[in-house]
Amino acid sequence: MSDLTATVEETKHGFHVEGYEKISYDFTFLDGVFNPENPQLAECYRRWGRVLAVTDQNVYDVYGDQIEKYFKHHALDLKVHKTKIGEKAKTIPTFLSIVDSMTEFGIYRKEPVLVVGGGLVTDVAGFACAAYRRNTNFIRVPTTVIGLIDASVSIKVAVNYGNYKNRLGAYHAPMHTFLDFTFLRTLPKAQIRNGFAELIKISTCSHLDTFNLLDKYCEQLIETGFGRTDGAPKEVREAADKINREGIHEMLKLETPNLHEIGLDRVIAYGHTWSPMHELMPETPLRHGHAISIDMAYSATLANERKLISDEEHRRVLNLFSRAGLSMDHHMFDEEILDKGTAAILKTRDGKLRAAVPNPIGSCTFINDIDAKELNAALRRHKELMKEYPRNGEGLEAYVDASDTGYTENNKAEVEALEEAAAEAGSLNGNGYIHGGSVSNGHVNGTNGIKEKLTNGFQKDLTNGVNGFTNGARA
Q1: Smallest Cα–Cα separation from 181: which of 40, 33, 79, 316?
Q2: According to the model, what pLDDT value does residue 401 have?
Q3: Rounded to whole angstroms, how far apart are CA atoms 161 and 430?
Q4: Do the Cβ atoms of 269 and 261 come closer than 8 Å?
Q5: Cα(426)–Cα(290) distance, rounded to whole angstroms?
Q6: Sign of the four-CA dihedral 59, 64, 69, 71
Q7: What percent of the chain has pLDDT over 90?
Q8: Confidence of residue 2 (pLDDT cuts 50, 70, 90)
Q9: 114 near 52, Cβ under 8 Å?
Q10: Phi and psi at residue 33, in whole multiples of 5°?
């Protein structure tokens, strides 16, 4: 939420306006946010007597009954807009579908929309709230590691457009964010790993103690859903809670003075110099955590080349990515992509590279004085180093699959309408096709498998993937 204080002064040739916007919003750690015995969320809606919730279909499949019972217990009428938002569906048509639900619901100006899901859901629904009447309140309940650790901290909301991530968006703070880490009990390991990258990001460049904990408990954190699964050792749970709280706190301390990104030297942009270009390049996009991990690993090599981190620190960073099963390289991450990514980010960062790199682990510096020759030499060395690691540095389950592509159950007419809209816009993340489908939970409900039964798309050798891909590799 925000309040504005402003003054207007008459000048010789007109007027001068000067305003200051106060932004305030809260975070609450609350295990069991939808437990009827926890009234905190319900109290936010008591005034209105009703709730419009926007949530991911995958989340609703697992937690829908619990959500419905929670609001029924607290005598609040609930309407749920269910969607599937992945990188391929983080688009204007998805955004407009949420806007339509807000109109149908008759949302009041100050009435908050409830947004439940991962970072992709909170991004798109948050943007819908920012655009609706130019400023509609919302409350976030993130359900993934990325949502809890990274997306929940920022006030940035957006959709992808054309072949560019987050090209259309706004800065729009929620009223409140409830952080419930019990959602990680049902999150697939691929998504746990995906979010783990965000913690490596913040700790490598800003919080050595957190990096040390990630290094110590890496495999256990991923295997136990950050200590939330049954039988997880108490020591791992306590370490996870410390990592999560300190990671979020560090992110907030770095972001709060720069909520609107007026300052472009951003520590938390480690891993985000070249990744916006190469994340969407593969036919099946990379998961965000893997895309930024490639960028971070390469940036660490660049830092090592410049003697900003020692050989030992360099290997420690690379080894942590490898142990976590995160990508450090990709066959499409080449000199051409490096050059295109550099050109694109220079525009975003006002003519300077501002590449965040560790110097040493736990602190950060920004590289600007670098040319293509040095960048390419570092890339060649990086690819040689990757030959020493499993899969030549490529990660496990690195590509979006049926749990996070956003492929929906639209009928043929609706699918064609979305394809036409995407074609008119130029492309849909570089792929002008949306394939209808029915997928099982992104969160796991009694099984670690993922079924996909396409109704209006292609059906060809699908195994935990799309368009004939098996975890990102052509089946």
Answers
A1: 33
A2: 78
A3: 9
A4: no
A5: 26
A6: positive
A7: 73
A8: low
A9: yes
A10: -60, -30
Cα 290 from Cα 293, distance rounded (Å): 5
Summarised one tens digit per residue, pLDDT across range 304-336 is: 999 999 999 999 999 999 999 999 999 999 999
- The rounded distance, in Å, linking the Cα atoms of 349 and 362 is 23
Residue 269 near residue 357, CB atoms below 8 Å: no
Contact by Cβ (8 Å): 356, 299: yes
Which is nearest to 121 in space by CA: 83, 177, 65, 74?
Answer: 83
Helix 189-206 × helix 234-255 angle, to 10°: 60
Token representation of residue 166 = 């987050």
Distance CA 316, CA 398 (A): 21
How many residues are given for the chain? Answer: 475
Closest CA to 329 of 289, 287, 377, 293: 293
Residue 121 in this model has a pLDDT that exceeds 60: yes
Does residue 344 contact residue 276 with C-beta atoms inside 8 Å? yes
* Amino acid letter for position 432: G
**Total H helices, total E strands in the chain:** 14, 16
Q: Which amino acid is at 200?
A: I
Quote the pLDDT of residue 201: 97
Q: What is the pTM of this model?
A: 0.81
> Residue 438 has what pLDDT?
33
What's the CA gap between 414 and 97, in Å, rounded? 12
**Strands annotated E in 183-248:** none
User: Residue 203 in contact with residue 196, Cβ under 8 Å?
Assistant: no
Whether 224 and 241 have beta carbons less than 8 Å apart is answered as no
Q: How confident is the model at residue 423 (pLDDT cuts 50, 70, 90)?
A: low
CA gyration radius, the chain: 22
44 CB neighbour count, 10 Å cutoff: 18
How far is it, in rounded angstroms, from Cα 213 to Cα 218?
A: 8
pLDDT band at 54 (very low <50, low <70, confident <90, very high): very high
For residue 461, the number of C-alpha atoms closer than 13 Å in the C-beta half-sphere is 8
Residue 430: its pLDDT value, please?
40
Retrieve residue 254's tokens.
């770095």
Taking each helix axis from N to C end, the angle separating 311-323 and 288-305, rounded to the nearest 10 degrees, works out to 170
Residue 283: how many CA atoms within 13 Å on its side-chain side? 11
